[in-house]
Amino acid sequence: xxxNSYVISIIPQLKDNYSYIxxxxxxxxxxxxxxxDATSILRFIxxxxxxxxAIILTHHHSDHTSGILGILDEIxxxxxxxxxxxxxxxxxxxxxxxxNFSFISFDIIATPGHTLDHIVYYSKLGKILxxxxxxxxxxxxxxxxxxxxxxxxxLEILKNLNDETEVYCGxxxxxxxxxxxxxxxxxxxxxxxxxxxxxxQLKNSNFSIPFNLGKEKKxxxxxxxxxxxxxEYKQNKKFDDFEMFSxxxxxxxxx
Length: 255
Description:
Order of helices and strands: EEEHEHEEEEEEEEHEHHEHHH
Number of domains: 1
Largest sheet: 6 strands, mixed
CATH topology: Metallo-beta-lactamase, Chain A
Number of helices: 8
Strand content: 15-25%
CATH architecture: 4-Layer Sandwich
């Protein structure tokens, strides 16, 4: 994503992880999100002649944090995280905090479920969300440490953000998520309509990220979407919204 103030660059990590580098168009300052591999990130920073301002983290899992110390070995910068146990943490952040950098500001939103310490970074002005492993395109994170109730509540909070928000998540899971949903909702027209778009994106860039939150609400059942198809499915099963979420999450766990 490129706007007048900054560029968001996708940095593939490990098998299917994404880190992101947000860099200013004005002063070349940069922020790294969830680094797993220091080498590729440091190379990008050097090639683009960027000045690293900070590292920001969504949760403690090693596939989002294992690159921190390698970066700090080369560049001494503050590390914002939700958990003081994460190596390198200098600034502990929690729900409703606001972080102001030289070219962008983020509101911190606690989203427990995947992990208990999970947070996301939301720029109201830029309408961008770094969702970590809480929200994926056509899916949501597996619930490891929290409860289904916590994950459901976290997603309800994200659902209420501005529809124009562009979402940057922690993994490239879109095609797998699409295949799962298609296996359950076999004749859902909305899914068929986005299939070609997803395949084209992956073919052209290898990325299906970012995605638009407003459009996602129409096709992602984990966002308690108001899609008429999901509503009919929910009514046939006699589910409320939380029961629908739990049902789909259980099915996905065993897919």
